């Protein structure tokens, strides 16, 4: 560590990389409330949250590719999935996602699960909204990242009840388009 | 000296074209940029396995024309940066450095919430940063 005699020569610190959780929770709750007044049904609300997340996803992909990845481009499926699972999650939520699994029934399905999504921490869904999940926002982010990296996919968020836990686990289900699988098979 | 830089979207739509010469050959430069897009596509779709790694962002010298050299750079979102220069002896490291700073300016321009992805980049700050980078490229190469 160099000792700086002049205080003006010391490098400026990068500053705290954290944002206030309550600030974000309030902002997100306003986003959900605002969208709720504009739509008539739940599917539309889910779509709007997803579109909001999509815009975030495109921008975060550009930023992360430049900052973290240096000179590499992702061309393989597993590469982009592990990128989403660790790097994107780390930047957005401060930790890597809990697990990444391959679907057993279909070849083109992958799942990222999280015990408790950060955006859902202060939200409880009323019973009459059925299977709606505010994690649709995070699903939109994932879709934005995958779409712009050249891996078109349909992404959705689901609650999965777990025994022994009061609140259900959240799973982000990623279903890749046909062309992605064909390209992956071609690349070997 | 750099005569032209261009940002081309993933559907080969132009997002930003700027030429830095006083002469009125902007059309010729547009044509050169357009032709170099074909070379980029060729490099991406038929990679030389023995050459540089498959998923490198910097594409290098695309093709030399009569008195210009064209360099390319491909980002993760299939957005291409094209740079046309008249310098005869350009160091590889200089060009890579140029593209790194250009990429940083591009990321900042796209992070603007009022920027619609797919539309042209209309930010004045981006234009100023690009001209600063272009000017300092010339100085570094000469010195």
TrEMBL record, chain A:
Pfam families: TRAPP. It is found in: Endoplasmic reticulum; Golgi apparatus, cis-Golgi network. One of its GO terms (cellular component) is Golgi apparatus. The keyword Transcription regulation does not apply. The keyword Disulfide bond does not apply. One of its GO terms (biological process) is vesicle-mediated transport. Keywords: Endoplasmic reticulum, ER-Golgi transport, Golgi apparatus, Transport. Its main location: endoplasmic reticulum. It comes from the Eukaryota. Belongs to the TRAPP small subunits family. BET3 subfamily. Part of the multisubunit TRAPP (transport protein particle) complex. This is Trafficking protein particle complex subunit. It comes from Forsythia ovata.
Automatic annotation (TrEMBL), chain B:
It is found in: Endoplasmic reticulum; Golgi apparatus, cis-Golgi network; Golgi apparatus. Keywords: Endoplasmic reticulum, ER-Golgi transport, Golgi apparatus, Transport. Signal peptide: none annotated. Pfam families: Sedlin_N (PF04628). GO terms for cellular component: endoplasmic reticulum; Golgi apparatus; TRAPP complex. It comes from the Eukaryota. GO terms for biological process: endoplasmic reticulum to Golgi vesicle-mediated transport. SUPFAM superfamilies: SNARE-like. Its main location: endoplasmic reticulum. Part of the multisubunit transport protein particle (TRAPP) complex. Belongs to the TRAPP small subunits family. Sedlin subfamily. This is Trafficking protein particle complex subunit. It comes from Forsythia ovata.
């Amino acid at each position: 560590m160099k000792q700086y005699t002049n205080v003006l020569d010391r490098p400026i610190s990068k500053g705290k990389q954290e944002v206030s959780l309550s600030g974000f929770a309030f902002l997100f709750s306003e986003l959900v409330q605002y969208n709720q007044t504009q739509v008539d049904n739940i599917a539309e609300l889910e779509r709007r949250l997803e579109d909001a997340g999509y815009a975030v996803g495109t921008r975060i992909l550009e930023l992360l590719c430049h900052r973290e990845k240096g000179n590499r481009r992702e061309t393989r499926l597993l590469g982009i999935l592990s990128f989403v699972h660790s790097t994107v999650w780390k930047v957005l939520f401060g930790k890597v996602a809990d697990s990444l699994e391959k679907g057993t029934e279909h070849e083109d399905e992958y799942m990222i699960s999280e015990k408790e999504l950060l955006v859902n921490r202060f939200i409880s869904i009323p019973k009459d909204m059925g299977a709606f999940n505010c994690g649709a926002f995070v699903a939109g982010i994932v879709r934005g990242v995958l779409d712009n990296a050249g891996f078109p996919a349909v992404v959705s968020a689901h609650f999965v009840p777990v025994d022994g836990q009061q609140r259900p686990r959240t799973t982000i289900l990623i279903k890749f388009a046909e062309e992605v699988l064909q390209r992956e098979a071609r690349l070997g | 000296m750099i005569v032209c830089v261009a940002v081309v979207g993933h559907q080969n739509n132009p997002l930003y074209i700027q030429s830095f010469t006083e002469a009125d050959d902007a059309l010729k430069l547009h044509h050169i940029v357009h032709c170099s897009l074909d070379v980029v596509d060729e490099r991406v779709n038929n990679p030389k396995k023995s050459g540089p790694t498959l998923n490198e962002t910097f594409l290098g010298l695309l093709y030399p024309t009569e008195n210009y050299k064209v360099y390319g750079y491909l980002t993760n979102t299939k957005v291409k940066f094209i740079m046309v220069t008249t310098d005869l002896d350009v160091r590889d490291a200089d060009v890579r450095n140029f593209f790194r700073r250009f990429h940083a300016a591009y990321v900042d321009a796209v992070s603007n919430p009022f920027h619609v992805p797919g539309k042209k980049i209309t930010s004045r700050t981006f234009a100023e940063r690009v001209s600063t980078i272009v000017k300092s490229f010339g100085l570094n190469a000469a010195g």
